[in-house]
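For this section, I looked closely at a protein sequence along with its fold in token form, which I now present.
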Amino acid sequence: MDTLRPLIILIAGPYRSGTNDDPYLMAQNLERLESFALPIYRAGHIPMIGEWVALPVMKQAGSIALGDAISEQYLYPVAGRLLERCDAVLRIEGASKGADEDVRIARERGLPVYSSLEDVPVLAN
């Protein structure tokens, strides 16, 4: 892995898990995922969260609510496509089948999987 260039790092963790699809709890989970974006950027990399891509795609496809048939076509498959462009994954704490699948795909593709911000290589401060 060439760590002389910025990596696109997918932040993987709970979004929907444990929320019973409560919009407030999912928003809290997204905010937690997003709390890792700035430290990754400050380390010289490009943070990415699957929901940043999936949620607008789902909305444009006609999804009315998370868990409907349309949203299910996009929420998790988007991460698979996104991982084709990502260079690494940061797996944050918390139970999540989707994040576990992201890790599985990343490892299958030979991508580094970091379990803490301290593991992410620093290119810039």
